[in-house]
Amino acid sequence: MIRRNFFSALAVCALALAAAPAVAQDAVAITNGRILTGTGEIASGTVVIRNGRISAIGPDAAVPAGARVIDAAGRVVTPGIVAVDSGIGGSEVSSVSGSNDLRQSSNSLSAAFDVSRGLDPWSITIPVARLGGVTRAVVMPQHPGSSGGHVHEHETAGAGHGGYHTPGLFAGQAAVVHLARGTDILVRSNVAMVAPFGEAGAGIAGGARGAEFTLFRETMAEVRLYARNRQAYERAGLRDLSLSRADLEALIPVAEGRMPLVVSVHRAADILQVLRLAEEENIRLILDGAEEGWLVADRIAAANVPVLLNPLANLPSNFQVRAARQENAARLHAAGVTIAIKPGGSAHRARDARYNAGNAVANGLPFEAAIAAITVNPARIFGQEGFGALAVGQAADVVVWSGDPLEPMNQPEAVFIAGVEQPLQARNLELRDRYHPNRDQRMPHAYSPR
């Protein structure tokens, strides 16, 4: 009896000990840091993380009893970076087709192409991006004219033999991913449809810009016809349509204004035409590229259309970007356009987003606007309100930096995704450590003298 009571009491104590620290273990308080929330700044304050979300933030936020405390004195605390127009998890080596699931060349499938089906949570691009403070990404399909790696027209939809171009008007659908360790990185699929316009779109449509605009309008008309007459389509009672059933279904949310259309466009004249087209067709639009956007910034702002841009694009490499300049981001922001700053051109360069933002600041973009352009703006542009900013209730995607995050020499010292701290390790660092000549004063086993 005594023994049974002893073990019963021991079990109760064990349960109490297991339950009591659970809150403490789940709670993290980052104190004394300069906090850039994505929408403002707190000169010195505390961010409290509990159950995967931010539970408190501010100069006087209380530290929960038993919480793990990270002293961020002299450090900067920001939301995690959201990389847009990225290939993270969808492409390992862009020039090796078998490892690149961001593009496809079917002539019978385009709009229904869903990049989320090819995501690889074990991709080496993910931990590399985390090292740069990237916690989420918008993964977009590649197409002629896109910036995501090496893309050629003959490798993408709509450019097959025989001239059957219509499906190639759309590259497919984008997805949002998180970069936390695990076997499922998908946050949300089908967040936007992607399409090339300008020279690339003209090439797909037959060689002229006017042809693409006409073809786009005809496609939207067919999608709406199909949506109104699904039963007739099923019994072959509807006229022949140029797109597959899968593509028609995928485009209904675009035609109804529920899914945004990301349009790669560069020339100012093309931007105006696309804005007019979106108004006529009642399409939700996101501009991608817009190197000459500063010339028509007031028109973009009036249309309430956001822009994804690379502020380093400043060379007149073709007739679409004759007026490209590094002040583009600053000019668009000053006009009231919501901008998101893109990283480099491949999945391996996602962490370049903060360097590009720093260059935009050097060319006139306010510092606070640059931080927003790599955190909260990308999330909101793609309809993701649950992350991107440091605010109560938001997912705890938090980065503690050694200093100003837009300065290349400063690095993350802690990265949290949905409240879980992530390892600051990646294959490139593992290889460096393995083959460093002074590693324990010895070489790896394969290189040991015999």
From TrEMBL:
What is the name of this protein? Amidohydrolase-related domain-containing protein
UniProt domain Amidohydrolase-related: residue ranges: 305-409
Gene3D superfamilies reported in the protein's UniProt record:
Metal-dependent hydrolases (3.20.20.140), Urease, subunit C, domain 1 (2.30.40.10)
- Which N-terminal residues, if any, form the signal peptide? 1-24
Per its record, what are the GO molecular function terms?
hydrolase activity, acting on carbon-nitrogen (but not peptide) bonds
* Domain of life (superkingdom): Bacteria
* InterPro entries for the chain: Amidohydro-rel, Metal-dep_hydrolase_composite, Metal_Hydrolase, Metallo-dep_Hydrolase
